[in-house]
Amino acid sequence: MKFGKKLIASTSVIVASLAVAVTAFANTDTKPVTGYGTLTGTLSASGSTANYSTSVSYNSDKAYLTIAGSAQNVNGTTVITKSQINSSRGATSYNGYLSPLGSNVYVVYGTHGVQGGNTYSADAVFTYTHL
Q1: Considering the entire predicted model, what is its pTM?
Q2: Sign of CA dihedral 17, 18, 19, 23
Q3: Residue 130's pLDDT is what?
């Protein structure tokens, strides 16, 4: 019986440690932005593609949502650049991707923004993920 409890306790510690390790490289960033509610940027990468998502709670100001990114190799050299792309005016979510990443990509960076509205200031959040 003692062995079973130790095994369960040890397994729980291992699972908790793995959960911390998985969340060590955040790929979502949020912030409150006047006139738009919460600005959220998400970046995920797997295989040969990085997927970007930008969203706001509301967009009555008719602003653009934006996505831009880059990828670097293990030496810190930029090997791919994704120029800024814009949503249609007034969108509350916008998605894009960066592909192909190639086998030498180590980290992918994302810039997610809201800009070009009639009243409120532009703002951005930043994400990154390791492959």
Answers
A1: 0.79
A2: positive
A3: 87
